């Protein structure tokens, strides 16, 4: 069940996501989770992701990622992709991304992204307005796992 602080998007597993064994080919999860991050910006943070890239010239590249593939997903499965914020740094956001199907955990990712100037190619401080929006998706302190709160990059 989705927690109040989580952003959720549903994705149907299609033939294109699967390998010859009939299960999701693991790199496809990274594509699906990137789509989730874009959906979070558009629908959760009310920030047009296309404008962020094309107009503001800001990106959110991954600087750290760790993934556990818990159970396979197959064509026809509907995944509930969920995003929660663990920590917000000066320019970084630590995320927990999960995929469930029928309440069964399939994949869990710990990922750190950084707000980044595409022109200057340097991290950019998260604005106070954006920080307030992001904060709505932050995992409450008592629900955090200590091993997941490693030092963030700025």
Automatic annotation (TrEMBL):
Q: Which InterPro entries match?
A: HotDog_dom_sf (IPR029069)
Q: Which CDD domains match?
A: 4HBT (cd00586)
| Pfam families, A to Z | 4HBT_2
**What's this protein's name?**
Putative 4-hydroxybenzoyl CoA thioesterase
Species annotation: Caballeronia sordidicola
């Amino acid at each position: 069940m989705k927690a109040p602080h989580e952003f959720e998007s549903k994705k149907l597993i299609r033939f294109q996501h699967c390998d010859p064994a009939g299960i999701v080919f693991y790199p496809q999860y990274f594509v699906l989770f990137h789509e989730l991050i874009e959906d979070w910006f558009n629908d959760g943070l009310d920030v047009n992701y296309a404008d962020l890239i094309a107009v503001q010239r800001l990106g959110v590249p991954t600087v750290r990622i760790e993934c556990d593939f818990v159970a396979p997903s197959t064509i026809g499965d509907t995944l509930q992709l969920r995003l929660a914020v663990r920590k917000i740094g000066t320019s970084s956001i630590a995320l927990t991304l999960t995929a469930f199907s029928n309440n069964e955990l399939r994949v869990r990712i710990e990922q750190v992204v950084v707000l980044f100037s595409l022109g200057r190619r340097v991290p950019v401080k998260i604005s106070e307005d954006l920080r307030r929006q992001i904060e709505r998706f932050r995992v409450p302190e008592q629900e955090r796992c200590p091993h997941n709160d490693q030092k963030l990059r700025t």
